[in-house]
Amino acid sequence: MTSPTHTPRASLDAAAARLTRDPRAAHAFAVTLDRLYRAALTDPTPGAPHAPR
After folding, report:
1. Would you place residue 1 in the very low, low, confident or very high pLDDT band (cuts 50, 70, 90)?
2. What separation in angstroms does the CA of 22 have from each of 2, 14, 16, 19, 31?
3. Phi and psi dihedrals of 23, rounded to 5?
4. What kind and span of H or E run contains 20?
5. How far apart are CA 22 and CA 47, in angstroms?
6. pLDDT for the residue numbered 6
7. Which of 26, 39, 40, 51 counts the highest number of beta carbons within 10 A?
8. Of the candidates 37, 30, 25, 27, the residue with the CA atom closest to the CA atom of residue 12
């Protein structure tokens, strides 16, 4: 089992916290990055580099 401090979301929160002193803004930024990353992974665009083969 992974530690809560080593989850992808925790990593995004930590990276965002370095960009701003406001914890709510940092978390919102991390959530947005996470959603964009997940959307890119599931993008059904044919020929996209991440498209399933």
Report:
1. very low
2. 27, 12, 10, 9, 14
3. -60, -35
4. none
5. 40
6. 52
7. 26
8. 30
Q: Is 30 exposed, middle or buried (0-12, 13-18, 19+ CB in 10 A)?
A: buried
Dihedral angle computed from the Cα positions of residues 38, 44, 50 and 53, in that order, rounded to the nearest 10 degrees: 130
Residue-wise pLDDT for 2-33, tens only, equals: 444 456 667 777 777 777 777 788 788 888 88
Helices (H), the chain: 8-19, 23-41
Global pTM reads 0.47
- In degrees rounded to 5, what are phi and psi of residue 29? -65, -45
